[in-house]
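Reminder to self: keep the SMILES exactly as supplied, no canonicalising. Ligand is fe (ii) ion.
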Amino acid sequence: MIYLTGDLHGDFQRLSPKQFREQETLSKEDILLACGDFGGVWYGDERDDEKLDWLESRPFTTAFVTGNHENYDALQTYPLEQWRGGAIRRIRPSVILLERGQVFNLCGKRFLTMGGASSHDIQDGILEPDDPLFRLKQRTLDAREAMYRVNHLSWWKEELPSEEEYQTARDSLDRAGWEVDYIITHCCPSSVQDVFSGGLFQRDKLTDFLEEVRQRCRFQTWFFGHYHADMDIDEQFKMLYEKIVKLDI
Ligand SMILES: [Fe+2]
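Structure tokens returned for the bound complex:
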């Protein structure tokens, strides 16, 4: 079985037996897929262990694509390996990061994964921790409750894919004949974003790439997170946040 959910931000209460009751009947063969902003690898040290070990103790496998709020420095320390047709980083034996631009074969269905998104909460800038004026700038920003983040501490440029990752996605889709069953991303195609946001969310290179995928690729359903709401945009596009949905396969 495959279940899907939206942003977790390092808070896994949603996956507790009380809130995700179906887990009683699940095994490690069953997968809970999170559509980005997993946030369980946040400090990159032993402070992450308790939550990750708890996830490992659940009777299902947790797999996630990356969002914009992930510690990319820490995630990259986990080595790449192959898993069910695509590249992953294994955080724990059953906690798995699904790399970008991969097509996985899960339960006989093909899943394209393409994590990442532009942060929307950085309009007042990104601070550099080695800036001699860092403390002063931070105090000034805090005093006016500004929306800023700190490079390598709360923001990483890798929130958006590299050229290589876009190429990997194109190559994988070429091999799949631009036809998959499901697409799992954090943000969504530009035109879909325009439908529900009324222009609030800016298009960027990734949403434009996903737009290309929307137009060229045949797929059944596209699940995405990022926008912090649960909403069926139409038959094909499903925005997820706190809901956990079971995939009908
Ligand atoms: Fe988020």
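Points to follow up:
The two ends are 8 Å apart (CA to CA).
The pocket of fe (ii) ion is lined by residues 7, 9, 37, 67, 69, 226, 228 (CB under 6 Å).
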